[in-house]
Design goal:
Number of strands: 5
Number of domains: 1
Oligomer: single chain
Radius of gyration: 14 Å
Strand order of the largest sheet: 3-2-1-4-5
Helix content: 10-25%
Order of helices and strands: EEEHEEHH
Number of helices: 3
């Protein structure tokens, strides 16, 4: 039996289009480290269904690989790491915030 890779539920906010992550207390956060790190496959599927059912809030919910980090979940794939930084085609929002840190 294959070992399950931990996941987070991610989507895009319906109105703003921002990348969001499902938290353990059923909120959508724009911060990856606030996401619920899911380490059980059955629980991951249930959380994904929960996210997908919120069609008035998010679009395109899916499970993304993650790992435990010192401040919460961290992405394990470059695509997901890129998504945590937000759009890179304009100098405001998350990209601008990163240059001022």
């Amino acid at each position: 039996m294959a070992r399950f890779t931990p996941k987070v539920v991610t989507a895009n906010a319906l109105i703003e289009g921002d990348v969001v992550y499902l938290t353990a207390d059923d909120r959508w956060s724009r911060l990856h480290h606030e996401a619920e790190l899911i380490e059980d496959e059955a629980h991951a599927q249930l959380r994904l269904l929960f996210g997908m059912a919120q069609k008035n809030v998010v679009v395109g919910a899916y499970l993304a690989d993650a790992k435990a980090g010192p401040n919460g979940p961290e992405p394990t794939h470059f695509r997901e790491a890129f998504r945590t930084r937000g759009p890179s085609n304009y100098a405001h929002g998350k990209q601008a915030d990163l240059t001022h840190v």
